[in-house]
Design goal:
The protein is α+β, with helices and mostly antiparallel strands. Bound molecules: 2-acetamido-2-deoxy-6-O-phosphono-alpha-D-glucopyranose. The site of 2-acetamido-2-deoxy-6-O-phosphono-alpha-D-glucopyranose has 10 residues, from β4.
Length: 183
């Protein structure tokens, strides 16, 4: 961490209030807690490989600590909106998994909210340990707790069956469209 104490993006109590044992089973929880910690993104994660981790998902660019910090603070100053969670490998002090829940406030559906799950990535060498499932279970549960009327995500065709295990569904008459300005 550069200059001063670490800062979390949101109150970690929100995650403590979830019963993570429900998602992984109490037997797996002991192992999980020995090796990994699931927590909110912190400023110090810049030095723990957060940017490199994201680059396993898509193009990230050369982000300086100042840029990271400015974006982090901008997200933090939008209350109840950005929930970026990470999994840290406690032995290595590296961030090895992440996923984001964004809460979008709406007028529709009785002034309800919609959740969007974004930027889900588990580092290559940690795949097959159900860590992606853990991230997804947590964020789906959070979005429900926040009262969203729906939660959505976009993904490549090869991941449709992966996400369907969490209840995500490709709706017949609902298409994701995009107008891309840069690669
Ligand atoms: C995936 C991500 C999405 C991310 C996009 C980046 C999930 C579930 N989906 O679709 O959140 O924004 O990749 O791809 O993690 P892009 O760089 O081509 O926009």
């Amino acid at each position: 961490m550069q200059n001063g104490t670490d800062v979390a993006l949101f109150d970690s109590k929100l995650l403590e209030d979830l019963d993570i044992a429900n998602f992984v089973g109490s037997k797996n929880l002991t192992n999980l807690q020995k090796c990994f910690k699931v927590r909110p993104l912190c400023q110090s994660d810049y030095e723990k490989g957060y940017i490199d981790l994201l680059s396993q998902l898509t193009k990230v660019g050369d982000i300086s600590f100042e840029q990271f910090s400015a974006r982090f603070n901008a997200m933090k100053s939008c209350p109840n909106t950005y929930y970026v969670i990470v999994i840290e490998d406690l032995m290595k002090g590296h961030v090895i998994g992440t996923a984001t829940l964004v809460i979008e406030q709406k007028f529709i559906h009785n002034a309800s909210s919609r959740g969007r799950i974004e930027d889900v990535v588990v580092s290559n060498e940690y795949r097959g340990k159900q860590l992606g499932k853990l991230l997804l279970d947590i964020l789906v549960c959070q979005s429900k707790k926040f009262g969203c009327y729906k939660v959505s995500l976009e993904c490549k065709t090869q991941l449709l069956s992966y996400y369907s295990q969490f209840g995500f569904n490709k709706e017949k008459d609902n298409n994701y469209m995009v107008l891309r300005y840069t690669d």
